[in-house]
What does this fold into?
Amino acid sequence: MKKALIAVDIQNDFVEGGALGCKGGKSVARGTKDLIQESEDRDAYSLYISTQDWHKGEGCTNGGHIEDRPNFVDSWPAHCIGGTEGAEFCRPLEAIDFDYRILKGYETPSYSGFSDNAYEANDESLSLVEILESRGITEVDIVGIAFDYCVAQTAKDAAEKGFKVRVLKPLTATINKASEERIVEDLASRGIEVLER
Ligand code: VGL
It folds into this structure.
């Protein structure tokens, strides 16, 4: 059994003060850095992977076009435009040297780290599933932002591809709190373990 940690979209635009800021996002960044450092001490993970929402420009955003008045359900303000400060890791996560850094949503919108359609723009030429399989990973733990969008979709895709998946919920932040319970149930129904603490 080999396990990877996937840190999803812990970027400036998704934390407090960002274009699509989630409450609790900064704390996710700090907590994830702590988890990575203490897990290295006990060899908990064989591989550390980050994803970043990395849009080509203002006209490209997950879930549809940018609208004058996004509804924050399936339309969003401009966010995480590749190369801008908003797309960078939230402090103190920039100090972490991830084994692989997956950029996604470059031309085609994508919530999931597995539809890493920007991977041509990455240093790596392998897709996320190819990276995991080539390293013999069978289990993944997922943390990051937002629980109800990119974390949930990445977790569902990982489960569908046959990995054993856990979501470490205290190290996530949610956009729409009202949908949280439904999403936890949906993930559980797919065999994904959602750890509450
Ligand atoms: C995300 C909404 C829009 C996310 C990305 O990273 O969860 N959410 N784009």
Observations:
- The chain is about 25% helix and 20% strand.
- The helical segments are 25-41, 128-134, 147-160, 180-189.
- The longest strand covers residues 164-173.
- The pocket of pyrazine-2-carboxylic acid is lined by residues 9, 14, 20, 53, 62-63, 76, 111, 145-146, 149-150 (CB under 6 Å).
